[in-house]
Amino acid sequence: MMSKPCKQGWLAAFLAIGWMLPLNVGVTSADETDSPESTGDAKATVSDEAVLLRYQLAAKETLRYEVTHVAKTKTRIRGAEEAAQVHTVSEKVWKVESVTEAGGMKFVHSVDAVEMMQKSGQADEIRWSSRSGEAAPILFQAVAEQMKQPIATVTINPRGQETEREQHSGTEMQFGMGGLTIAFPEEPVTVGGSWSVPREIKARGEAGEVKRIKARDTFTLEKVQTGVATLQVRTEILTPIEAASIKAQIVQQLSNGTIRFDVDAGRVLNKQLDWDETVVGFQGPNSLLEYRARVTETLLDGPPRTARR
Questions:
Q1: Burial of 2 (0-12, 13-18, 19+ CB in 10 A)
Q2: Partners of residue 107 on adjacent β-strands
Q3: How does residue 1 score in pLDDT terms, banded at 50, 70 and 90?
Q4: Can you spell out the DSSP letters for 134-181?
Q5: Closest by alpha carbon to 214, among 198, 226, 203?
Q6: What's the longest Cα–Cα distance across the chain?
Q7: What are the Cα distances from residue 104, in Å, to 77, 161, 261?
Q8: Is the pTM of this model over 0.90?
Q9: Quick check: 113 and 147 in contact, CB under 8 A?
């Protein structure tokens, strides 16, 4: 049997995942040696006057997003409680290398800057900014080493499905929706229409074995206004989960939020995902995990828009 970590060790590991989220847009999969999982095909409910959702990136252009991650975590193990919080603001960058005649878009994903804060229990608050010129604290050194370095080179088709990925640093991550892009359905979608994208979440069992959990992200088109589509996304777990220790590992990989997609320019304008999760018994019968978090992502210096009625 795999030994159970102490309270401080478990919370530190959970927070380590948390403050890395804006950099890698994900939580590390349980088995990092696996190749990236396909998001699968998306199916939509449609009707007349539907909207075709497609990515449209131009060769040599650069997209920059400000990503903010705020989280508060409370654990109780063997009667002892500890609270922690993180606040991270990073600048995510996509540099588009090429676009094929068929519409395949190849871009390099990196992070140019980050400001980080973490506080755990009664310990002093730890802060660091990559723009300060100061050396990063040990806690943030792995992040500092990735600044302005390619994290991955990714190729997507117009539907947002990854067709190729080369990982340069860090690990292939899954956070929330499970990828860097949204997998759109083949056909147009009307307001009120929805589609589901299956994916797999990985966790570790008590003996260290990899547990593969089936899930699906369901997207619903809420409205289209002035060329911007507003989508709602929510994750549904399909595999029955009885062990609270497994539930605690996957809470950060669930999605519940809103996405605004520029239909004309073919890119995400902003995104907000929220978490409000409680897991009881994840480290013994009287243990408790509370996780409250929000991640927002906003396109900086977006393309000029033409007003619509």
A1: exposed
A2: 96, 154
A3: very low
A4: SPPPGGGHHHHTTBTS--EEEEE-TT--EEEEEE-SS--EE-TTSSSS
A5: 198
A6: 63
A7: 49, 10, 19
A8: no
A9: yes
Distance CA 232, CA 257 (A): 6
How far apart CA 154 and CA 26 sit, in angstroms, is 15
Q: Strands, DSSP E only, in 60-157?
A: 62-77, 80-99, 105-120, 126-129, 152-156
Residue 255's pLDDT is 87
What share of the chain has pLDDT > 70, as a percent? 79
Compute CA 263 distance to the chain's CA centroid, rounded to the nearest angstrom. 22
10 vs 218 pLDDT, higher one: 218
* Under 8 Å between Cβ of 154 and 168: no
Quote the tokens at residue 116.
């980080």
Q: Of 178, 183, 202, 191, which Cα lies nearest the Cα of 273?
A: 178
Tokens 């909207």, residue located: 51
Residue listed under structure tokens 């977006």: 302
Residue 23: both structure tokens together: 């950099």
Helices first, then strands: H and E counts in the chain = 3, 15
Domains present along the chain, CATH in parentheses: 7-300 (2.30.230)
Check if the beta carbon of residue 86 is closer than 8 Å to that of residue 295.
Answer: no
8 A C-beta contact, residue 219 and residue 235: no
Q: How far apart are CA 244 and CA 76, in angstroms?
A: 14
